[in-house]
Amino acid sequence: MTLRDLKPGEAGVVASIGTKGAMKRRIMDMGVTPGTQIRVIKVAPLGDPIEVNIRGYELSLRKEEADQILINK
Amino acid sequence: MSIKIALAGNPNCGKTTLFNELTGAKQHVGNWPGVTVDKKEGVYKGDKEVTILDLPGTYSLSPYSAEEIIARDYIVKEKPDVVINIVDGTSMERNLYLTLQIIETQIPMVVAVNMMDEVENRGDQIDCSHLSRLFGVPVVPITARSKKGVKELMNAAIDTAKKKLRPNRLNVFDQNISNAIAKVEEVLTDVQGEERTWRAIKLVEGDEIVAGTLSAAQKEKVDAIVAEAAKHADGDTEAKIADLRYIMIADIVKHAVKKKAKGHVETKSDRIDKILTNRVLALPIFAVIMYLMFSITFSETFLWVIPGPGVWLQTVVCDFWDGPLTDAIMGFLEGAGASEWALSLVGDGVLAGLGGVISFLPQILILFLLMSFLEDSGYMARVAFVMDKLFRKFGLSGKSFIPLLMGFGCSVPAMMATRTLESEKDRRMTLMITPFMSCGAKLPIYLMFAATLFPSGNRTLLLFSIYFLGMAVAVIAGIILSKTMFKGEPSNFIMELPQYRIPTLRSVLIHGWEKVKGFAIKAGTVIFASTVLIWFLSRFTFTLQYLPEEEMERSIIAQIGQALRFLFIPLGFGNDWRPVVGTITGFIAKENIVSTFGVLFHAAEGVADAAAEGSAAIPGVAEVFTPVTAYAYMAFNLLCMPCFAAVGAMKKELGSVKWTLKAAGFQMITAYVVALLINLIGSGITALF
């Protein structure tokens, strides 16, 4: 499953990042690396993007980006 | 001995607060060459020999955003005497990621652990001496907002710069990556020392900019080494390195940071956020905040009772400028026996030109006091979060909403508000379409035409349709631009939602002052010079004979209008030269179109003023325009290049003449195409009935 499949309040552990290149780099730079705990906080009022908590801070990303982050629940 | 200090850190780590604290209002804000990113420099208040540069906030030194390239180029190439790396004590893990990368450059550095007040309030502890031993450089706890620890930090930084104290190299990488770095170093025979190792690390990371500096032979060898290393790193050395850095950080944090509470604790910021980005309440709250912001800056009355602060202040400033000041200067010149043209030069050229610049300052100040409050409090990031889905469809960012909305008041402060957009593409695109939002100065044009050509028509409907036209064109232009001029530019929304914090008054005031000063200097010259030029063109003949205002039809500008009017025949208003001259004088300020019509159509005194409010028609205008061509003319002036003040602001924000010309050209073409369509379709419909 991917980060996109998690509902607000649910948590999981990052398994791997599906994409390549600049986007992968940016996702990892922000601390989303394999083995890290990640928790979905909320979805924006218009349904996208989402807000997650990782490494003790709040990060927002679009659903299409969340789709690239594979999760082990 | 003079010392150069650079401040580096994540966005929202309190870097700007510290910079303001260290330099006070004595700062110089410019642009980094070729990009629209602020370059802030200042002199340390405690020692004039120490200059401080505020690098753009970045999460990393990878070369994917303009900010990151600037920050790393400065550190690696300009080599400041010391880098102060500010880390947010409440979010050590993510912040130390940049720290590790700065350590890789082996530049002398000091680490400032900021927000210690919040850390202590949470009951957490950070062992700075442990970090200091590990990094081999001073690590100083500070609270920039209350100046706590700032003096100690600066002493440590100056001391580190004098000793040229380099940080320890940390054992971040595993055997495989370390071997690859060592092998790449052997290939890089043309650079020495610290820079060689740094370049080798970057090459193993797959850094394209560093790879671009290699010779073909070197590149072949490096590619082979990296490909071999990738085989033992799950196929991706770049990801592996990011991963290894975070593994190291997790280990550091385990030893140096003691959290009181295990797991996630709800902070005050979290509770505020639950309301501000609530599914139901987010949009209404946002609408109220935007309404207040617009109303405080641009409305005549604020909350229907008291005078709007922005407009009130503007009136005070303009009344003084146009009244006592102008009277005094003109009186003095008349007394000294100045000739008629000299009086006009000073009165209608110089004083009007400077007045044009000054009239914008109050609203810029007020808007930016509000903007910097929103930005520093953390709400701006939520604006992007809430609006992103809607604006992404038009190729823009959620934060574009604020400049576009402010555009209905005045394009000048609106364009300056684009600085809060993260990506350069979003900034440029927003700058190009902001003038399509019909600003306050364009309203008199519509009112004049409403009174002159649509006396029996529904005025509200007419005004609504033209405002709507502007918005529709902005949306279409956004879609077209993102698929053409800005095609393929990466867009992502992977950003931090910072903690809500109450900004310091000092930061808000410095920011407001900076914007006013920046506009007056950067845009002021463009506005002033162009105002004087138009004055000259409208008051002189080709033989340099001076003309009184009533004889504008003999002026150079009238000849230009004659020459250019053929271009506008397809748009329906090229049969007469006067509308063309109106458009040109409109570049000084759009409402000038009405007063120019008053002069050129020889309207009786006071008629043009009444026409600007929609309460009188200018005789003769109805013979030149039909309702269709009048509408085409309104649309053209709405969409074409904005006034010189806005062009000045646009140039300041775009940071380049080339881009400014591109933007103005784009607006001109858009205006032409839309006006042409209106004329063709409108004439077609009229012919049918």
Topology diagram in text:
The complex is a heterodimer of chains A (73) and B (689).
Chain A lengths: L10 E7 L3 H9 L7 E7 L6 E5 L2 E5 L1 H4 L2 E4 L1
Antiparallel strand pairs in A: 1-2, 1-5, 2-3, 3-4
Chain B lengths: L2 E7 L5 H9 L3 E5 L6 E6 L6 E5 L11 H13 L3 E7 L3 H14 L3 E6 L1 H6 L3 E2 L1 H8 L3 E3 L8 H14 L11 H13 L5 H12 L3 H4 L4 H16 L5 H20 E2 L9 H9 L5 H17 L2 E2 L3 E2 L1 H27 L4 H19 L2 H17 L1 H14 L8 H6 L4 H6 L7 H10 L9 H11 L5 H25 L11 E2 L8 H35 L16 H9 L13 H8 L6 H9 L6 H6 L8 H4 L2 H13 L4 H11 L2 H32 L1
Parallel strand pairs in B: 1-4, 1-5, 5-6, 6-8
Antiparallel strand pairs in B: 2-3, 3-4, 7-9, 10-11
Helix/strand/pairing category of chain B = alpha/beta
* Estimated helix fraction of chain B: 55-70%
Largest sheet of chain A: 5 strands, antiparallel
Q: Strand arrangement, largest sheet of chain B?
A: 2-3-4-1-5-6-8
Approximate strand percentage of chain A: 35-45%
Query: Helix content range of the residues of chain A, please?
Result: 10-25%
Oligomer: heterodimer
The low-pLDDT segments of chain B are: none
Average pLDDT over all residues of chain B = 89
Strand order of the largest sheet of chain A: 4-3-2-1-5
**Largest interchain contact:** A-B, 35 and 39 residues
Overall 3D geometry of chain A? Answer: globular
User: Helix- and strand-based class of chain A?
Assistant: alpha+beta
- Proportion of residues in β-strands of chain B: 5-15%
Radius of gyration of chain B: 29 Å
Q: What is the rounded distance between the termini of chain A? A: 8 Å
Record field, number of beta strands of chain A? 5
Which ranges of chain A are low-confidence, i.e. pLDDT below 50, for 5 or more consecutive residues?
none
CATH superfamily of chain A: Ferrous iron transport protein A (FeoA)
